[in-house]
């Protein structure tokens, strides 16, 4: 099993580890609920070094990224990032990812750990006559995420970057705890915060310095358990649960990342046709009215008939209720639609609701 | 750590005998393995349970786990407090986090269970 360069740091904290797609990763330190609430109210530090990093560089780098993804990478300035997808010709997901423009001819794709080899092979298979080099740099990068309302206060004294002017989805190179890093105002929790990428072979100083500095602010180390509950409250997609090669970008309610006007890209025709014909199904959020916890693959019923399956579901530590996502026939996707979730031998009543389940209040800086 | 007047099962339930009644819960080891308990599904009072029959379900944020009855009998009470305070299973698994009370059918069911000393030894074989 693969270990991140921060493995020793976690061991010192008495962590519980799990296997996650070939990686030995922290699942919880102090408990999922406590870690979740720390991120919502104070701050949390994650080791997400398992994430994949693929670099595309060369004369046709921009054109190639434009071809692979539906969002408009042409709008990215240097050091700016966007959420997008790697799409199949059917408009479904090979993966979802962040694309950073590092230079006009150099893009960094941050992809899911479980998909990094598949994505790399996919990208190579689509290279054709594009004049680019594709580098799977996943093993060279470490990635930490510092998330929560106190993230800026904690990180600023450790970084030689002015975080106050770093806008959401912008990044900047600098030193964090003396280590060269790319600091990006992004995350997967629904909170303000940063993702810190480094090519250093010794990233532990970043982890240790943030942990030390964060103590007085209530910072906790956070595992993959709370990462999942946080992202679900914010209705951020999880590949393999909510999106995959059978769900289109439009069905996943991500029309905002599809820029038809930018020119050709993989899946453009299929998505354009689907838009024209109208969606037959779409992902929606629901909450349970009855007691019970929805879990992936539990059946979802509307008017007594099976209409779908739970793709993600959990007890929401912040909202203190059971929430989930499911694809439903388009006529049942309106907020307020009554559904039932089959939990063991019972059916628990629920309602389709507006998403995200959780949205942070805008804070005046 | 583990009360010496309880019996323990390999599935990490405990049983405390009071006269012809048995109180059943999950062990401290079990609650630690589960993590934050957020939902408990309890059986109805009056239900007859055989040895190793499912009593109910305990769910943490990440895991769903069946609880089995280590002894046979009729459910005479369930811990309704767990509906509103499932975290009691984490905070006091051997006390306020009890799950059900049974009218025990056959006192000899406990003979197949472990004592506290046996259970602690059993755990040594599991814990890394």
Task: Describe the protein in words.
The complex is a heterodimer of chains A (365) and B (128). Chain A has helices spanning 7-11, 32-41, 61-68, 116-125, 151-155, 204-214, 224-233, 268-277; strands at 16-20, 23-28, 44-47, 52-57, 81-87, 93-103, 106-111, 133-136, 142-147, 171-176, 179-184, 193-198, 220-222, 281-288, 299-302, 305-316, 321-329, 338-343, 346-353. With 365 residues, chain A is an alpha+beta fold. In chain A, the strands form four sheets. A six-stranded mixed beta sheet of chain A has the order 10-11-12-9-3-13. In chain A, helix 2 crosses helix 7. Chain A is globular and about 60 Å long. The mean pLDDT of chain A is 97. Chain B is of the alpha+beta class and 128 residues long. Helices cover 19% and strands 35% of the residues of chain B. Chain B is built from four helices and nine strands. In chain B, the strands form two sheets. In chain B, strands 1-2-3-9-8-5 form a six-stranded antiparallel beta sheet. In chain B, strands 4-6-7 form a three-stranded antiparallel beta sheet. In chain B, strand 2 and strand 3 form a beta hairpin. The longest helix of chain B has 9 residues, at 116-124. Chain B is globular and about 35 Å long. Classes of the chains: A alpha+beta (365), B alpha+beta (128). The A-B interface holds A 16, 27-28, 31-34, 225, 229, 291-293, 295, 314-315, 317, 344 and B 35-36, 38-39, 41, 57, 59-62, 64, 83.
Quickly list its features.
heterodimer; A: alpha+beta; 6-stranded mixed sheet; 6-stranded antiparallel β-barrel; B: 128 residues; alpha+beta; 3-stranded antiparallel sheet; 4 helices; 9 strands; 19% helix; 35% strand
